[in-house]
Amino acid sequence: MAGFEVAGRKFRTEADYRAALRDQAKIKEIQAKVHMDQPGEVITLYADMQDGQYKFETAVGNDFDDKIYELAEAYKKQGYNKDSKLPTGKKRFSRKSAVNGKNVKTTERPNGKVAQGDVSLDAYDKDMQKEIMRELKKREKRRKLTVAVCSVVAVVCFGYFGVYSYFTDRTQRNYESLADLKGSNTLVGMAPNVTIHYTDDEEVELEVLEEYQTLYNKNKSLIGWLKIADTNIDYPVMQTVNNEYYLDHNYSQEYDKNGSLFLDKDCDVVHRNTNLIIYGHHMKSGKMFGNLNKYSSESYAKEHSTIQFDTIYEKGTYEVMYVFRSRIYNEDEIVFKYYQFFDAESEKEFNSYMQEMAALSLYDTGVTAAYGDELLTLSTCDNSEADGRFVVVAKRVM
């Protein structure tokens, strides 16, 4: 066990350990090519990582991904972009000033002193010398004030990134352990059956799939698991009596700004709704539904057209049908509100919903649905407008 450690991370199996070594080698290769003190190179690197040009297998790679994200965001906040490049050496700052009515090229050095080409300070009369020195002192005060303000801002920023890194790291560790528990038999059989009382006359007894029994026994709010192959979306899905708790709590019921994926409180996986809606935060790090908006690309949707959503009682495979942007509307606005679509009471009503979503869809996937089909909707925030939402709708095929 002691030998299976890479970059401060411990691994349970030799296979995981070797995967971590591969990630470490890939990181060293990246660091040999990218200058971390060059904003443009760092921002470009993170964009490449988001596009999947660099794929990691373990937490070692995920840690590196988070560090690059934080550094890229810090550079962006300073106004840098992909084309930005800092000089490799220190430069003096030149300007022109009017001295005795003439334009003289001057150079301001870091110590605040000024060289006036071949003209020295002694070349001017005493009044002019005092004026020059007064101006230099003002500039020095402004420089010190700027440094002080920047220092405070830097402390605040580093504090924010420290807190963010803590939650990101903890979330990563938590979901790694959950992935290990998925399919394990640690707590299998302790409470495999679930009894649901719908009314006094209706009682339904269901058996939790063996794959999810251990996870269910650790947290009874577990309702399923969502996975999209070749993406980072591979998470448990929670459900509780409201749509607030899992906005800022994880599977372990700890406070976590990443929150959890959760099924709308009005959805019923037993008496199956026409449409199940799963919500998740759009995290800048890519966690949760942070990468869901990649479905805005038609080519990406074709490469990731299949979504696996298992409830704790049965498995399910879905095919992407509609991708669109919407928003949260006022209650009195008469408009299609996808987040209120749970059931279609008739074929006419169902077809009306399909027409609304088809009209909003960014492209035609070629997939359609008929009355009686089961749908799955994934929803996350979108910054394109106030209260914006990015939505992916899929049809169950298995």
Explain how this protein is built.
By secondary structure, this protein is α+β, with helices and mostly antiparallel strands. The chain has 3 domains: 5-85 and 157-180, no CATH class; 93-149, no CATH class; 219-396, Sortase, Chain: A (Beta Barrel), CATH 2.40.260. Helix content is 34%, strand content 21%. The chain has 7 helices and 15 strands. It has helices at residues 14-33, 39-50, 59-77, 126-181, 210-218, 298-303, 347-360; strands spanning 5-6, 9-10, 93-99, 102-108, 114-115, 193-197, 203-207, 222-227, 234-238, 261-263, 275-279, 306-311, 317-327, 375-382, 388-396. The strands form 4 sheets. An 8-stranded mixed beta barrel has the order 8-9-10-11-14-15-13-12. A hairpin with a 5-residue loop joins β4 and β5 (114-115). α2 packs across α3 (59-77) and α3 (59-77) runs antiparallel to α4. The protein is globular, with a radius of gyration of 29 Å. Residues 89-119 have low confidence and may be disordered.
Summarize it.
With 398 residues, this protein is an alpha+beta fold. The chain has helices at residues 14-33, 39-50, 59-77, 126-181, 210-218, 298-303, 347-360, and strands at residues 5-6, 9-10, 93-99, 102-108, 114-115, 193-197, 203-207, 222-227, 234-238, 261-263, 275-279, 306-311, 317-327, 375-382, 388-396.
